[in-house]
Amino acid sequence: MGSEAPGMGGPDGKNKRQGMVKVLVDGVLGWIGEVSKLAGWGGRREERGF
User: Fold this and answer.
1) 18-33 b/e with 16+ CB inside 10 Å = b?
2) At the top level of its lineage, which domain of life is listed (predicted)?
3) 8 to each of 1, 17, 34, 46, how far by Cα in Å?
4) What are phi and psi of 3, to 5 degrees?
5) pLDDT per residue over 34-49, tens digit each?
6) Which of 10, 12, 21, 45 is spaced 20 to 30 A from 35 at the CA atom?
């Protein structure tokens, strides 16, 4: 009693699944960001001079 970390675990493992989904989504977003950098689609364009 009281020895569990707050917000961790649960009888149905819901928090564990949410953590795994977050890791997956973060990985996909990171990959999309890297691809967009390589393709020159993202980032600041400092040459505009506005």
Assistant:
1) eeeeeeeeeeeeeeee
2) Eukaryota
3) 14, 11, 32, 44
4) -95, -10
5) 999 898 886 655 555 5
6) 21
